[in-house]
Amino acid sequence: MALARNPQQKVRRSLAGLSRYPAAGVVPLFGSAILMGAARTAIWTFGVDILREELQFSHQRIGLAWLVLGVTALVGVAAGAGTDRFGIAVIHRLSLVLMGLGIASLATGLSASVLPFVAMGVFGAGYITWSGT
């Protein structure tokens, strides 16, 4: 294969290589990334505010809730092994379900029970698994 001496030929060859990737597949991927970014914001960014203002958690309970999230996020370490065994689609869907359950559980507003801690834990496991797939 002769090397292109003209820079325009190099650019054309580089762009020609992009045709191997279907443009139609990029749109759902882009949409998914936008929606996941918005969804994770509910707890990852505003979790402390939700716990403090909506559920009247003390500083100690907020710290414990984030500790639960962090410990259960260790499940995300298994994302690679799970992907190898079950496939990326299954693990990705599982992580989305876990995140959705966590967000929905926290949205119930039940602060007197263990539910907010479970919600934070389920979300943590789902979010870190999702980011590892």
Radius of gyration: 21 Å
Annotation field: number of helices: 7
Q: How big a fraction of the residues is strand?
A: under 5%
Basic shape: elongated
* Helix vs. strand class: mainly alpha
Order of helices and strands: HHHHHHH
Would you tell me the overall average pLDDT? 82
The biggest sheet, with number of strands, parallel, antiparallel or mixed sense and barrel status, is: none
The beta-strand count equals 0
- The parts where pLDDT drops under 50 for at least 5 residues are none
Helix content: over 70%
Q: Distance N terminus to C terminus?
A: 37 Å
Transmembrane segments: 21-43, 63-83, 95-128
Keywords: Membrane, Transmembrane, Transmembrane helix
InterPro entries: MFS_trans_sf
Protein name: MFS transporter
Could you name the key traits of this structure?
133 residues; mainly alpha; 77% helix; MFS transporter; membrane; MFS_trans_sf; transmembrane; transmembrane helix
Give an account of the 3D structure.
The chain has seven helices and no strands. The chain is mainly α. The chain has a domain at 58-133. Helix 4 runs parallel beside helix 7 (115-132) and helix 6 (88-107) packs antiparallel against helix 7 (115-132). The two termini are 37 Å apart. InterPro entries: MFS_trans_sf. This is MFS transporter. Keywords: Membrane, Transmembrane, Transmembrane helix.
Task: Produce a short descriptive summary.
It is built from 7 helices and no strands. It is mainly α and 133 residues long.
Per-chain topology:
Blueprint: H1 7-18, H2 23-44, H3 47-54, H4 59-72, H5 79-86, H6 88-107, H7 115-132
Helix pairs in contact: 4-7, 5-6, 6-7
